[in-house]
Amino acid sequence: MASVASTSVRTTRALDAAGTLIRFGLAAVWLVSGWLKASDPNQTYVAVQAFDVLPPAMVGTVAAAIPFLELALGVLLVAGFATRPVGVMSAVLLLGFVAAVAQAWARGLSIDCGCFGGGGAVADGDTRYPQEIARDIGFLALAGWLIVRPRTLFAVDGRFAGRVEVEEEPTGGRSGTHGA
Amino acid sequence: MGGAERTARRRRQQQASGARNAVASARSNKPDRIKLVVGAVLAVLIAAFVVGGVLLTNASKKETEERGVAVAQSAADYPVRRDGGVVVAGKDDAKVTLDVYEDFLCPGCGSFEKRDSDTIEQKLTAGTLRIRYHMLPMLNNLSDPPGYSLDAANAALAAADAGRFPAFHKSLFADQPVEGGRGWSDDQLIALGAKLGISSSDFADAVRTGRHDSLVRDVFRKAGETPHLQADNNGQKVFVGTPTIANGTTVLDIGDPGWLTALTG
Predict the structure, then answer these.
(1) Segment A87-118, tens digit of pLDDT
(2) What does the pLDDT look like over B184-212, one tens digit per residue?
């Protein structure tokens, strides 16, 4: 009985550590991509326009909002605040990016996604749609982990979860997946 | 729903659920409230961040709003006339006639003009070169707000009517707005005309009403249908883009700065 318990504790710790790495990894993705976009707003406008999906009047607002949404998600992930909802928002945003790239590919547009700055029209041979989509799916997997198992170390969430666990300990024990 | 109303409703629900659920509800109530608070804080944080960012971005993108177009004087001394949506510059008996396709917002066109406009001007004045300027609204959606390419091309045709095309055209490329940023407004285009000596209200009227817009669009449509101006894109023919300089039906390579001298001697 004792050895089973210690094995599960060890597994839990390993999963917590993995989740923590994933949380900081996804945070880094959002902070870097958000910063590169926010620091060159004109180029970001060009990149968003190049997808050719938004009415012209909306391009400006969306192009201005996306970098800061990414930065906000990055900051929240660093803090480990509301990890599961932030994971859900990250996944929704990434799915949106994948859809945008996929439609550009399907329509035969020649653009760079501008995922990490840059973007806009490119020469016909210079598109990288499969790589861009594969990369976003990789990021989606990170977000997916945090949705399924948001518990991580060094997280603001841990303070809330900790209190809840203390209260629940006598009746149920820990499930290991307390979200915010 | 107000907080008091929400609390009252929850109290009623708790009373209705009775003592048999008292333990369960006491256990689930606290995490619920935490979730609510976390959700509210999350929504406020993200909204504040994004709205702040949008305002900051919009403020930073209005560089052209603060000032007028800088004037680039032209030493032009050659005939200029408007032929529909095309401006023809230089003497009709020049031995070389080139078709220049450019967009006032296109960065490559700005580089081309900054590098070659002096040489071009000399050869137009010398009478060895004639240029047909096709000003396309190709990047019309790439200014924020959209529409600068068309507005500028329309204004340039009006400037040709007013006899000030060379300096007007040169100034717009020398002080070119950034792609993705704010272009020059109609008022700023009119002010540039005034600085260049266009005093007629007819020019201002043409700029404000977009008098030549349909001519500009026609020129773009024709460029898109001209066989020698098409490039192959995965089996589809698409317009080669701007800047493009054609000598008859031959699209020229202008990568070498000496291209024009090699052509006209």
Answers:
(1) 999 999 999 999 999 999 999 899 999 999 99
(2) 999 999 999 999 999 999 999 999 999 99
| Residues in CB range of A157: below 8 A, 6 or more apart | A80, A81, A82, A83, A150, A151, A178, A179, A180
Task: Give B25-30's long-range contacts (Cβ < 8 A, gap of 24+).
Answer: B27/A167, B27/A168, B27/A171, B30/A164, B30/A167
How far is residue A101 from each of residues A47, A49, A115, A134, B137, measured CA to CA in Å? 11, 13, 10, 11, 26
Q: Where is average pLDDT lowest: B14-23, B33-42, B105-114?
A: B14-23
Identify the three-state secondary structure at position A121.
Answer: strand
Residues B88 and B131: beta-carbon distance below 8 Å:
yes
Nearest CB among A41, A43, A59 relative to B60 is that of A41
pLDDT tier at B264, thresholds 50, 70, 90 = confident
Q: Decide the pairing of beta strands B96-102 and B129-135.
A: parallel
Q: Are B242 and B103 in contact (CB under 8 A)?
A: yes
CB-based contact A81 B42, cutoff 8 Å: yes
Q: Provide the whole-model pTM.
A: 0.81
Higher-scoring residue by pLDDT: B13, A34? A34
- Length of chain A equals 180
d(CA B191, CA B10): 66
Which of B118, B120, B138, B140 has its CA nearest to residue B129? B120
CB contact under 8 Å between B38 and A76, yes or no, is: no
More confident residue, A57 or A136: A136
ipTM of the complex: 0.80
Best CA proximity match to B61, nearest among B140, B139, B135, B142: B142
Q: How near does any CA of chain A get to the CA of B236, in Å?
A: 10
